[in-house]
Write a structure and sequence with these properties.
The protein is mainly alpha-helical and about 190 residues long. It has one domain: dinb family like domain (Four Helix Bundle (Hemerythrin (Met), subunit A)), CATH 1.20.120.450. It contains 6 helices and 2 strands. Strand 1 and strand 2 form a beta hairpin.
């Protein structure tokens, strides 16, 4: 790792954000019943389970892409300690993913979560994927986060810098935790059984 094992500044920021996301998610699901976890506030509105499972599905599909991109950059010597300058388009794209949600996007079919998921399985996978993301951040330490490009999760047509890719992941996770919190705060949210 660069800097004697310390994460470079930008990656350290993403690392702290993911740790905070893990804590927020744990607080959100703590003491929920299966019925509460899977309750949907309306037709075509996701449950807490679906919000977290969507993040799991995204991780399952996107983490290998990030890992391959990091490995390829290391192999080709695309390294830099930063600081990094990222382009306006990618920065704009990251901002649109942040909560509170102003613009809604329909998730592509392969990213849509099933309903009625058990808390234990969804939560265990969520934690595993968050821990893997923290590993990916450590693996990216020293890689040029501005010159290394990574495709968006939903399409290979648009590429972001690797730094923007990590920022988008964190923003996307905050977005769906915000969405899950809206479910829990709904006045019709069921009482614990």
């Amino acid at each position: 790792m660069a800097n004697g094992g310390e994460l470079i500044v930008e990656l350290n920021g993403y690392y702290r954000q993911i740790e905070e996301i893990k804590r927020d998610a744990e607080e959100l699901v703590r003491d929920l019943s299966e019925a509460q976890f899977n309750w949907q506030p309306g037709p075509n509105r996701w449950s807490i389970a679906q919000c977290l499972e969507h993040l799991n599905v995204t991780s399952r599909l996107y983490w290998p892409v990030l890992a391959e991109t990091i490995m390829r950059s290391r192999t080709s010597g695309l390294m830099s300690p930063g600081p990094f300058k990222h382009g306006w388009f990618g920065n704009f794209f990251v901002r649109t993913a942040e909560p509170p949600v102003r613009t809604r996007f329909k998730a592509p079919r392969r990213f849509r979560p099933p309903s009625d998921q058990p808390i234990a399985r969804v939560w265990a996978q969520f934690v595993t994927f968050q821990d893997r993301l923290l590993e990916l951040l450590r693996e990216a330490n020293g890689v040029d986060l501005a010159r290394t490009k990574v495709p968006l999760p939903a399409t290979n047509l648009i590429k972001l810098t690797l730094g923007q890719g990590f920022a988008l992941v964190a923003a996307h996770e905050r977005r769906h935790l915000w969405q899950a919190r809206q479910v829990k705060d709904d006045p019709n949210f069921p009482n614990r059984d």
